[in-house]
């Protein structure tokens, strides 16, 4: 696959592009496997090469602010001089650290419970150092296979010297499906057993639920009616915001975590139906800049489809 002007060329078929929001609809179903190039170096055709890295010496709160300012869910950690990959940090790691997961033990053991000292410690304390990465010479299939095998949503791309050159995410694969007819529906790939959060659940309990289940998001219900979705990034944004952060590190942290999760629901509900083609659902996801779509039928939550599910669909 390669990009030409405002078009994308896949297997010599030009598809008119509508910007990052998606493609013009093709009239016939497209074979998924024909879109997953095995050609050397094709990973760079969809990876974001405007990647921002942070040094391992940056403070935890500095990393949080960087992620919030740029709207990132993950950010590679690289040597300040060489930009060689050293680690990666995600919004889930931050929630784990601040919200009582395994990383929170660092606060208790190393910093004797002093959260202010902990968040001013270096990101190297909590980053993932065993980083899965791709090479600039890898193919789209290499990236897809790695995401599925390692169960990760974003992978740094490096050159032969280990210098960070780009990052590829599940969203980039959603981009490949956006607006086309795939012949596959949301129902075939959505998760039907959905873990939800009641609207009065505390932020702390929601954070622990995400950490324990390995989720990045939780649908929020009030009287069995969906009122929104919260994500790990929402919790990170809440905990890292000015007044809340001040209270978190200088006051009663338990009080902060007792805030009901419904207060974090800010945006309108963007949903889909189970019989919608995956390509159409992908287009909605990109257009509305969301990482998941709850599946509603007659107002009832029947499932949820996430970026990860689109990656699974392409791997089938």
TrEMBL record:
Keyword Oxidoreductase (UniProt): yes
UniProt GO molecular function: IMP dehydrogenase activity
Q: Which domain of life is it from?
A: Archaea
The Enzyme Commission number assigned here is: 1.1.1.205
PROSITE patterns annotated for this entry?
CBS
Q: Give the matching InterPro entries.
A: CBS_dom, CBS_dom_sf, Diverse_CBS-Domain
> Top enzyme class of this protein?
oxidoreductase
Q: Which residues form the CBS domain?
A: 47-105, 127-186, 190-247, 265-316
Listed A to Z, the keywords are: Amino-acid biosynthesis, CBS domain, Methionine biosynthesis, Oxidoreductase
Signal peptide location in the record? none
GO BP terms: namely: methionine biosynthetic process
Give the protein name, as stated in the record: Inosine-5'-monophosphate dehydrogenase
Originating organism:
Candidatus Methanoperedens nitratireducens
């Amino acid at each position: 696959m390669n990009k030409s002007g405002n078009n994308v060329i896949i297997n010599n078929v030009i598809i008119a592009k509508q910007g990052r929001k998606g493609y013009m609809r093709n009239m016939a179903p497209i074979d998924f496997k024909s879109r997953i190039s095995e050609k050397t170096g094709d990973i760079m055709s969809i990876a974001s090469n405007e990647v921002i890295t942070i040094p391992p010496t940056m403070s935890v709160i500095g990393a949080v602010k960087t992620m919030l300012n740029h709207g990132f869910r993950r950010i590679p950690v690289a040597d300040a001089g060489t930009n060689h990959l050293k680690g990666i940090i995600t919004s889930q790691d931050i929630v784990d650290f601040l919200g009582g997961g395994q990383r929170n033990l660092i606060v208790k053991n190393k910093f004797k419970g002093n959260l202010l000292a902990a968040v001013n410690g270096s990101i190297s304390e909590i980053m993932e150092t065993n980083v899965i990465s791709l090479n600039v010479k890898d193919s789209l299939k290499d990236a897809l296979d790695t995401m599925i095998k390692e169960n990760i949503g974003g992978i740094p791309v490096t050159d032969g010297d280990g210098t960070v050159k780009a990052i590829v995410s599940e969203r980039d694969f959603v981009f490949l499906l956006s607006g086309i007819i795939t012949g596959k529906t949301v129902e075939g790939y959505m998760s039907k057993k959905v873990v939800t959060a009641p609207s009065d659940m505390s932020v702390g309990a929601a954070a622990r639920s995400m950490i324990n289940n390995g989720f990045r998001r939780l649908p929020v219900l009030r009287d069995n009616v969906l009122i929104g979705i919260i994500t790990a990034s929402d919790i990170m944004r809440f905990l890292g915001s000015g007044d809340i952060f001040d209270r978190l590190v200088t006051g009663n942290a338990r009080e902060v975590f007792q805030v009901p999760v419904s207060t974090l629901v800010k945006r309108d509900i963007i949903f889909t139906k189970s019989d919608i083609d995956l390509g159409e659902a992908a287009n909605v996801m990109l257009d509305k800049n969301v990482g998941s779509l709850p599946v509603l039928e007659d107002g009832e939550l029947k499932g949820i489809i996430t970026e990860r599910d689109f990656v699974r669909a392409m791997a089938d």
